[in-house]
Amino acid sequence: MNTHGMNILAGARPATRLPAQDLDRARRFYREQLGLEPVDERPGGLLYRCGGVYFALFQSAGASPGTFTQMGWEVDDIEAAVSELRRRGVVFEEVDLPGLRTRNGIAEIDGNYPSKGARGERGAWFRDSEGNMLGIGEPVT
User: Is this prediction's pTM over 0.90?
Assistant: First the structure.
């Protein structure tokens, strides 16, 4: 069996792409609510960099369903992050599902990836101006 190329993506850099029906509105949201500025742009697209990783917003006629987390950030202090984002006008989702309930916008989540050395995570979710569901999480050690 030829295994050449089987791990072709193992060394590749993942790149998140988020749809935006209105790129100007999205740019304002990411600047004013999240404090992010694009590091590059092209017609129909904005490129952002956070923590050495890139993500892009692209002009799209389609709308995000916003029913699942499309991108997230790992933070050191979720309480401070939620507080600051709220101050900037971000509205956090309140979730009340079996096994997942937020209190003041933050959920306690059991379990985490063993390689990350945490026993759980605290998470919070919000939608951007385009309906994309974004999350922030803090590992619990």
Answer: no
